[in-house]
Amino acid sequence: MSQANIALGAHQSGAMEPSPFSIPSKKLAMWLFIISDAMTFAACLVAYGFLRNSTPNWPTPFHSITNVAIMTFILVTSSLTMLIGMRAARAGDKGKAFRWILMTAALGILFGLLHLREWSQLIEEGMTIFKNPWGTGLFGSAFYSITGLHLFHVTCGVIALIVVGFRYQGGRYNADDIEVLGLYWHFVDLVWMFVVPFIYLLNLSH
Amino acid sequence: MHDVSHATHHGPPTTFIRKHIFSTDHKVIGKQYYALALVAAFFGMMLSWIMRIHLGWTNAAIPGTQLLSSTGAPGGVITPEFYLQLMTMHGTIMVFFVLTTAPFAAFGNFFLPIQVGAEDMPFPRFNMMSFWVTFMAFLVLVASFIVGDGPTLGGWTQYAPLSAVGSASGPGQGTGAVLWAASIGLFCIGQLLGALNFISTTLDMRTKGMSLMRLPLSAWAWFITSCIGLTAFAVLLPACILLILDHVAGTSFFIPSGLVINDKLLPHSGGSTLLWQHLFWFFGHPEVYIAIVPAMGVVSHILVTNMRKPMLSHRVLIYCMMGIGFLSYVVYGHHMFVSGMNPFSALVFSFPTLVITIPATIIVLIWLGSLYGSRLRINSASLFALGFISMFISGGVSGFFLAQPSLDILLHATYFVVGHFHMVMGVAAMFGIFAGTYFWFPKMTGRMMNETLGRVHFWMSFVGAYALFMPFHYLGLAANIRRYQAFVDDYLQPLIPVHKFITVAALFTGFAQLIFLYNLIHSRFWGAKATENPWEATSLEWSTDSPPSWNNFNGKHIVVYHDPYQYGVQGSMGDYVMQTSPEQVATPGDEK
Question: Distance from the CA of B587 to the CA of which of B71, B242, B368, B568 falls in 20 to 30 A?
């Protein structure tokens, strides 16, 4: 990615036109990825809404929001730890930044484990990707696909946090890279804020 | 704040593999995309020949077809299922691997960084991945000819439930349909990576003086297209994954309950066939503009150069392309007027569909108005640019009819629609590709193409394409239903001579493309050497060697002083002033 750095240097020395957003290429690329990924999640959620409205026997099997509330709390906290890590990196405190990035990764792993525990409970109750005891099989399809897509993003994020964290510690990446990764992590968090009401709260049994 | 100490200039690649195969050089990637599109185009054209011959002479044995399928053509006579498989592959290959890759990915990769004055794209490795993922997608798609019982027969739109229920619904619907979805999913990933690079190149890599409004029209078109691609492919990707899940995981996103296929009740429950159409066309309509907007940009760029004067309005042309890009998302429902969607939705989608013709018409009027009174230099490139405008108008006019639900209900399932989209999207975009090829070939290879053969190619293609696609409208008005492999009904019998005529026209037009292929290959090796600026053009790609060195400008620092199209002025080299030339321009340009 050294070309991006060349561009950075050239921007600063006035050899190039300024970027309209005044941000480095990597950050711009992450924003573009987020736009694109947001479309992907939007498509999935719209598809879910379409199916939910057009299917008569849609089940509402969830009884409690305790588990999902804990998961949400963990993910939101991880955004906070990411923010602290990013600020530390900006301030040049490498050790602190590294610790908070690893803390973020740990919270991500915890979120994933809680998610998998929830999945296995649902599978035990008889809900699979194509059938469940309460109503249309589409419920399981939509639930596992959308939460699965999100979990995939969390997993990728955790791996990236660990890799970038260690390489930042080793001096290969800098505070900018931490910020770019932070953008991704906050986006994954934000998506969860859409998944919770649509997938969980709408399907609580009354 | 930014750490620039890592900024290192890599030397040129030395090994053959890094230079020509796994190259991160945007120019090599552009050529790779072009080669892929070329192979795909001839393969797709060959499939269309087989279909056309079969439609004209239904029981004729077509030699060689057994090679494509072990069961689809016993004795060379196409079976109905194989006809549908051919149709699906023709559509998929042409739309994705030719019309998307050639004008956008091929020319865009090669020329966008040069036109903005950059040494490369900001993420060259993503760019390399973009090509190789797309190439893999092509292999996966073509592999369906030899795997299982052939390619899917669901059409390039893969409408559910046919595409989702598996092998119960016909040959190729099992493995073939999964391969199709996997291929298109891969293609989406490849194009997303490309779009990411295109947008950040345009915004971040412009050299000094290259303000956004100084970008040539082709660069603007690629930029707008990549904005469309970034969001449209992101919707098709999950749709393809859901389709694969329906096949392999037993879900029923797109399969309604109680569906009986070939006398068998399927165990699925609850899905929606309309959902696929919504997801597909939300991508599918922007995709049409992903094919045509780059062609518009390329054609504008070529016309300006050959008219020797700027467009009537550079700015309005750009805004209109943006308008088309934006509106392309809200018109997608016009593909679904007969899908069983609420008729009120049809009315709602009909309105923006008619509105989108306004920017398109303004663009055409700018072209025609600029051409009026200009002393156009006639060469293969400018001829194909004119051909593009002609095709775009002729094909676009039938769009006014189809945009109205009451008329579309009659015409939708007929050859009228086939004629419409082949002209306005297929042939028009192909003409844009040809124009770009004749125009940029000297820059891409350092050699000139043969002009005489180019003109022969143009006139044969132009006459051939009209002879081929105009009668489709007539067939459609005569209620000739599309997607049928033979016309046995009484009312269709009198139309068979028209089909025979179309087939002859198709073979004739196809033959013209062989001339193009010969010209391309022959000129690549034995063409006359090209100078740096054979067309006396002004944009940045003409201020460097032909072909450009690995870092585009030999490490020279490029500064831009002018708007892209300073023609018809007093310059030291003639009637033009290059963007890189610091000399004063007497006549003010279009954009100040």
Answer: B368
